[in-house]
Amino acid sequence: MQKIWYQITEHLIPVFRRRLSGVDALPQLAVLGLLSGLITGGVILVFRLAIEWPLERFLPGEGSESFENLDLLTRGLLPLAGALSLGLLLHRLSTHDRKVGVVHVMERLNYHQGYISIRSAIVQFISGVATVVSGQSAGREGPAVHLGAAFSSLMGQWMRLPNNSIRTLVACGCAAAISASFNTPISGVIFAMEVVMMEYTIAGFTPIILAAVSAAVVTQAVYGSEPAFNVPALTMNSLLEIPWILAIAVIIGIAAALFIQLVDTMGKHHHRPVLLRIVTAGLLMVPFAILVPETMGIGYDTVNETINGQLGFWLLLGAGVAKLIITSLSIGLGMPSGVIGPTLFMGATLGGAMGLIGAQIMPEHASSVGVYAILGMGAMMGAVLQAPLAALMALMELTHNANIILPGMLIITTSSLVTSEAFGKKSLFLTILKNQGLSYQNSPVIQALRRVSVGAIMDRSILRTGRHLTVGDARKVLKSEPKWLVVEGSNGPTALLPAVDLARYLEDTEKLVSEEEIEPPESIDLMDIPANRRDVAPVQYQATLEEALDEFESTNAEALYVQRHVAPMIQRVYGVVLKSDIESYYQYRRS
């Protein structure tokens, strides 16, 4: 058994890592995607049970979302007490440890190559459960995405994979989390690539698809194969409804722009104490909880009732507007809640309300309220997240109805254009990042460099040697025919020397000695002989080409030696990378 384990750890895993350093390691990425989906599916199951179990026992009535059945006093005190508890918890944490949700995942991808800590995952789990259980206007999908990304990233860190693979694992975790939450694998894949990664790659599709499918299988084993909402057979009755659908798209586009603006405005108070902001959000929630209890919690029961035409116009309109206001204020103030669920709630209720108006205007042509509720959900999700394809895929998977595609495409693209072009709003997540003083670089060059590790292009033909050598030692060094000599100093490598320069020096020296012009040197100083030496700086084996370029810029080095920790205080050098190697690789991939 020990021999088998030795073979795995000493031979198979290093080969696995080395293959992953390139951009074409599809079989290895497929295995990682499958593992990511299974792990994420299990984590999301635990997360959902942690929310549903206490609510099913605490709330009167059936299910885990019947906040409406609570008495007025409890409805008012519950979110306030929950906000106070959350505020005290977050107050004890450092600013870095308070960051949670999809925005945090995007930040870790852009600035830290997808490395997410276990501490961050624990904080997200606790705060995600607390916001929903205490009746805040919250969703579970944002926290689920964070948890899926975190545990997938931790798996990659534990396996000491290259950073480009960890980035792919984070995308797998995001897709698996959406898939497990809604039972919508396709929209999970598109969400991960369109919203979080902001890129589509052929190599990325396979592992992300496998992650989404395997996570869906895990949750279906417990919750069944039904989607998150009970959607009846829906179809658009007449093409004469298209002008009204366009009008609804404009209204929802305006509502989405208002939502993003309110979050942005409240986010400008992020410098204030976190306890004050969270308690303020809880106080603001109190009147909404008392007057419009449908805004409490996730609200999927209200969405289901809207789709099935069980709610009246004023309740739909009031709940939609109330949810928009309180959710935007809470998220802007820093409440660690998800936004995808509330987005679907707002879209369903506002779309349903507009559908009832349409039924009064043209009763003989209007479709059911459920059609407009579903279209509103897609429109609001597409506009707020600026992810029209993910929203369209969500509509298809939630309805299992191809008839919804045509009006869905129309309303989603129109509402997204109204929000982005008429009001100049970017995605909610990008807006929050900007408010925090951060950006999200997604240029084609940066994305291409992030997909490849330095291990894929480094030159392994190296030999580490001391600065001072005898002539005999120098010949031994050249006997193995290395391309580069890494000259060691007192604190590690100090220079890179072409081996051919040492060979040329030996030839010239031997020629002069034979002609009796000089005495044979007792030792050779590699830092003194004529040679094209390069100043060096270290880069970790897991680093991407983007990180390597950043290292070149920050150190002004002429070459990077690729190293990895193999034991405490021991670094092993695997190869060297020149700046020209990165440029040549990128040019080759482009052509």
From TrEMBL:
Keywords of the record, alphabetical order, are: Chloride, Chloride channel, Ion channel, Ion transport, Membrane, Transmembrane, Transmembrane helix, Transport
Where in or outside the cell it occurs: the entry states: Membrane
Give yes or no: UniProt keyword Signal: no
- Kindly report the protein's main subcellular placement as a broad class: membrane
CDD domains cross-referenced by the UniProt entry? Voltage_gated_ClC
Enumerate the transmembrane spans. Answer: 29-51, 72-90, 200-222, 242-262, 274-292, 312-332, 344-363, 369-392, 404-424
Annotated membrane topology: Multi-pass membrane protein
Looking up PANTHER family in the UniProt record yields:
CHLORIDE CHANNEL PROTEIN CLC-E
What is this protein called in UniProt?
A: Chloride channel protein
